[in-house]
Design goal:
Length: 271
């Protein structure tokens, strides 16, 4: 009944140690041998997947940057990209500069970060990503200048505040019918162009592959998985998902530390 399964990364395919368990890797291999498509559906940039793709040789496609980029891993090509409009990227840069907000900007599949922000990442409550950014981000002296210089070519912009209250206030200020915004982490806001989200990315990928959206499964745990869980033929929430996401899902799996993704494959994709 189902031909494609799309897995979120953090909190879903990755366990709490940011690893893909050997059992999960084997289940993905079995799904591929059965002729199924296993897809990554993540808010990450392509550069942030470098440590994982060698362990996933059977995964051909990715819905990246929260749906702003569709990527063919095997042919190393971008199938589709939807950047944030120039004027809105400039507005985000101005807001972030005034508030000394940490910015992660994604351009052509690469993440960019200000060097001083990485050095003081604890202030922005995302220190658990320090190692990832040290490995994968291109560090610049002034991220606000970088965003202004490359406005119109940025697929996603993440803003990390120093408090949750500041984040919530920023959310109200930056709301626009030309932007998609999701609250993330303790202090973050993630921005893409309006209409860009993982669900839209799944729909576009299905069109490219000639698949019905009804023949897809989506698995996730957080707010940026909301649309794809609703859009897919079957939506599965991890046991560690937020209550809101569990309410949206058709079924709830074990947690990301209990190989919940293996159950998604064995109990639903291969049945």
């Amino acid at each position: 009944m189902y031909h494609l399964i799309a897995f979120d990364m953090d909190g879903t395919l990755l366990n709490s140690h940011k690893e893909i368990s050997p059992t999960t890797q084997e289940a993905i291999r079995e799904a591929s041998l059965a002729g199924k498509e296993v897809v990554l559906s993540t808010g990450r940039a392509l550069s942030e997947l470098a440590d994982y793709l060698p362990d996933l040789p059977c995964v051909h496609y990715g819905i990246l940057a929260s749906g702003a980029v569709l990527c063919d891993f095997q042919n190393q090509t971008v199938l589709q990209k939807t950047p944030i409009p120039i004027d809105l990227a400039l507005n985000l840069a101005t807001y972030a500069r005034q508030g000394q907000v940490m910015v992660l900007a994604m351009k052509d599949g690469q993440g960019y970060l200000q060097r001083s922000h990485l050095e003081t990442i604890e202030r922005f409550h995302v220190s658990h990503y320090r190692q990832l950014y040290e490995k994968t981000a291109v560090l610049v002296d002034n991220i606000y200048d970088f965003v202004e210089e490359h406005a119109g070519d940025l697929e996603k912009i993440n803003l990390y505040h120093q408090t949750a209250n500041a984040r919530d206030a920023g959310y109200e200020v930056l709301l626009s019918d030309r932007l998609a915004v999701v609250k993330a982490e303790q202090s973050g806001l993630e921005f893409t162009a309006a209409g860009v989200h993982k669900g839209a990315g799944l729909d576009q990928l299905c069109d490219l592959l000639g698949l019905s959206i009804a023949a897809t499964i989506a698995v996730g745990d957080a707010d940026n998985d909301r649309e794809i869980l609703v859009q897919a033929g079957l939506g599965l929430a991890m046991g560690n998902a937020s209550d809101d996401i569990k309410t949206l899902a058709d079924h709830i799996l074990p947690t990301n530390d209990q190989d919940g993704c293996v159950r998604a494959i064995t109990d639903y994709l291969l049945q």
